[in-house]
Design the sequence.
């Protein structure tokens, strides 16, 4: 069965290496075969998922208990109003015109409806322990892979000269360490694609989904046409900073604010350097400038390059990553700016979607002294004031 499946997978891989070029490779050299990465990546993703569960149970739970991290979310005392519940399913943050319509349907005041929706959103927040688990797993993975990536690429010629990504391309041999580096990274991102649907929903859910989908697509497509060298540069550039962001989040959840601020201060310039300087200068320049120059001057591949659908898709996806970098940089800079205006760092990129500011210390809106339910409508309500404090750091892996 697997042999048949592998044949079908390999049928999808374009034949871009000429026999005479492959003959120039050293004896025993390996060139990428699509089936060698697809099925193993699913096995790796399942392994990552199992490791995540073990990590939560045997490391996160005792670690969180030691630092007093809350395992549950404070229960919100709200009445299950059918009209509001129906609207909540469609829209968790209704606009003013919708709120006015809901007021007419329920007999509640505008403020009561706003408070109800805020409390309802807060009810769906992930616990601090769940957030700690997410940040901890990201920290462990990114920290290990950042150093492993450097170890794998340190002696590779394309690590210091991006033009070497294309010398001999597409007839380039892939070593075992590069294969495993690719496989582990691909397995991780595939497992994360599943977990972002099952974990708490983030405020930047769509951006996160796009980023991880683009990353998986880039790795598979680059493997299929042997653009593995440039792919490894993309991975190693990104891995050098994400573990710092995860560490800052961990510090927030265990109430080590000074540590969080210090780590974030280190993270911010590294993010800007890697995402806005090194990535476009090395990766985008290489694939948009170096590759066409090499194809024109050194190999008869210019026609294949110009007409290759996969090549054009790869170029486009790399630009999508850069757009996400810019978007997240703006959010991170806004977060850093709050340090000077409010004295606290707060980044809305990837904490729970339902988290709202100004929500604590609220009078329970189901207090019988405030209003009662009559024929399904709430009447005689009392407004409540809400405030919330807290710091959050994001985890936008790019």
Sequence:
């Amino acid at each position: 069965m697997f042999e048949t499946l592998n044949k079908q997978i390999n049928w999808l891989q374009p034949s871009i290496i000429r026999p005479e070029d492959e003959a120039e490779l050293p004896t025993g050299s390996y060139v990428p075969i699509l089936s060698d990465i697809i099925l193993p990546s699913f096995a790796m993703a399942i392994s990552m998922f199992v490791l995540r569960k073990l990590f939560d149970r045997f490391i996160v739970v005792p670690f969180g208990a030691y630092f007093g991290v809350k395992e549950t979310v404070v229960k919100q005392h709200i009445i299950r109003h059918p009209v509001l519940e129906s609207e909540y399913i469609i829209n968790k943050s209704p606009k003013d015109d919708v709120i006015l319509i809901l007021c007419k349907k329920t007999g509640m005041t505008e403020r009561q409806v706003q408070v109800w929706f805020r409390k309802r959103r807060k009810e769906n927040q992930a616990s601090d322990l769940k957030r700690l688990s997410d940040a901890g797993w990201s920290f462990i993975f990114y920290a290990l892979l950042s150093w492993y990536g450097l170890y794998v690429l340190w002696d590779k010629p394309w690590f210091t000269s991006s033009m070497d990504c294309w010398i001999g391309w597409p007839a380039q041999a892939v070593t075992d360490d590069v294969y495993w580096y690719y496989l582990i990274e691909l397995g991780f991102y595939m497992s994360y694609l599943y977990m972002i649907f099952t974990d708490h929903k983030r405020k930047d859910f769509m951006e996160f989904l796009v980023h991880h989908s683009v990353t998986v697509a880039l790795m598979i497509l680059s493997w299929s046409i042997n653009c593995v060298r440039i792919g490894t540069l993309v991975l190693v550039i990104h891995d050098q900073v994400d573990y710092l962001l995860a560490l800052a989040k961990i510090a927030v959840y265990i109430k080590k604010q000074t540590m969080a601020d210090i780590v974030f201060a280190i993270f911010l310039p590294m993010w800007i350097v890697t995402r806005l300087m090194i990535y476009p200068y090395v990766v985008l320049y290489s694939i948009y400038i170096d590759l066409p120059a090499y194809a024109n001057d050194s190999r008869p591949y210019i026609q294949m390059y110009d007409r290759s659908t996969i090549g054009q898709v790869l170029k486009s996806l790399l630009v999508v990553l850069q757009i996400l970098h810019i978007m997240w940089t703006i959010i991170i800079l806004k977060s850093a700016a709050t340090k000077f205006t409010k004295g606290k760092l707060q980044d809305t990129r990837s904490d729970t979607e339902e988290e709202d500011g100004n929500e604590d210390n609220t009078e329970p809106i189901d207090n019988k002294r405030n209003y009662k339910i009559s024929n399904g409508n709430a009447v005689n309500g009392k407004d409540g004031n809400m405030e919330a404090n807290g710091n959050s750091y994001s985890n936008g892996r790019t």
